[in-house]
Structures are given as C-alpha cells and as structure tokens.
Amino acid sequence: MRRLLLALPFALLPLAIAQAADHDHKHDHDHAEHASLGAHEHGVAQLNAVFEGTTLELELESPAMNLVGFEHAATSAADKAKVAAVHSSLQQPLALFGLDAGNCKVAKQELESPLFEDGEHAHDEHEHEEHEHKEHAHEHADGESHSDIHAHYQFDCQRPEALQQLNLGGLFKQFPGTEKIQVQLIAPSGQQGVELTPAKATLAF
After folding, report:
1. Separation of alpha carbons 118 and 113, rounded Å
2. Percent of residues in the chain assigned helix, strand, coil, to nearest 5
3. Which uninterrupted H or E stretch holds 52?
C-alpha cells in the first residue's frame, strides 16, 4: 500500500530508538526494507507521526500477535471474531490516540493485514494484494509465518494549537499485548524519537 508521503524524513531521523531499545533479535535483514518502521518483534509496535499545520498523519505498524493474539489465518469462528473486533477498534483511532483536545476528525484511514484480507474486511484496492501479503506476512527460517497489521491515518485538526500531546493510553488499554511503541515524530517543535509504554503513554508535540 502507499506509505507516508513524508517517509523520507523518518529515514533520516536519528536511530535513537533502535539503539536504546537494544534489539537483540534475528530480523536484522528487515531493517533495510523497513528502515522507518523497524522489524517484527512481538510486544513491540512502531508509530510514525507527522504534525504540520492542521494535519496530523499517523502510521502504525504492529505484529498481529500484539493486537489479535495470533498471526495465523483466522479459520475458526472465534478467531474471525477477534480479527473483526480488532479491525473495528482500529477504525476508531480517536479513541486510541487521545486527540480530543485538537478537535481532530479522521480525513483518511487505511488498514492492511493478511488477516483482514482473508475475511469480509478485504481491502478495496486489490491490485496490490499480492505485494502487500508478501510485505506483511514474513516467512522465517523456522517456517512460521509472522503477520503484521498496518494502519495509516490522516486527521484534520481544527484546533491544532490545543493539541499538545499524543496519548497512546487508549491503544495500550485496548491492545494489552502491546508492551511498548517506538515513536518517531516530526512536529513544529522538531524531530524526536521515544519509546512509550503503558506507564509512560504520552508524547508532547
């Protein structure tokens, strides 16, 4: 799917997050392809944020395990119900990112995952389906498929001066399998990279 138009600045951000997080995993080969989004690691998600004028753009990348609790194709009724519930929650980003102060409205949103494509939530733009499936479902040496969920949002904030912070408390509460979120932010105040957790869930713009 289409990435953030401002993806390039993220690639230029200092790698403070990656260094601080001490990533000791086996997915180093993913870094070149997903430089701005990080690699697949359970419990960890990546969030890119661009705040400029009245527009806030967010791009969330997370292993499906963090949100759904599994990464295999949903075949049972229970699994399909979980996928549907997660899809529904991700369609209500204002509750996940705490943007009430800025009077923000969702201008655009796009959700992508092989798990969504398997059911009634299949993406409308099928021309990229094969490419996206390969991009979001990583086959590892152990033969296990690791699926990602990607959410891209654009908000129009009528009171941008009142929007002082990004609050991910709602996201951590909704998806307790997410232990930390590595955030890269570009805002009028400058660029910063931080790691948020349920205990420290806010980031000042």
Report:
1. 9
2. 30, 30, 35
3. strand 44-52
Q: What is the pTM of this model?
A: 0.73
Q: What is the pLDDT of residues 102-148, one digit of tens each?
A: 999 999 999 999 999 764 443 444 334 444 444 445 444 344 556 89
